[in-house]
Amino acid sequence: MPVTFSGGDPLYNIDALVPLATALHSRGVNIWCYTGYTFEHLLSHPRYRSLLEAVDVIVDGPFIESLRDTSLLFRGSSNQRLINVAESLRAGEVILWKSDF
Predict the structure, then answer these.
(1) Per-residue pLDDT tens for 15-54?
(2) pTM score
């Protein structure tokens, strides 16, 4: 069962989001999180680390109307990335999520 955090920016409520994400992830729930922040920004702020450890995929970057592309999978504009969080944390660099379909 997947869970997606989105709408506005869920990271504006980081103190409530981390315990929920951690509890769900510990039960094997696959978690995606949409944020206007970049992955690099999240890595540079320690308060986001525990969230990153509980999220499987981050869709990062703001939606930009001039970059809108309806052919993209799971995102609305071409500046946004689908990031495999666990692999990125292990590698120390952004590793993009790859679709099985």
Answers:
(1) 999 999 999 999 999 999 999 999 999 999 999 999 999 9
(2) 0.93
- Encode 54-91 in three state secondary structure: CCCEEEECCCCHHHECCCCCCCCECCCEEEEHHHHHHH
Question: From CA 101, how far away is CA 86, in angstroms rounded?
Answer: 20
Q: Is the pLDDT of residue 100 over 80?
A: no
Distances in Å between the Cα of 40 and the Cα atoms of 2, 28, 35, 94 are 24, 26, 12, 8
At 46, is the secondary structure helix, strand, or coil? helix
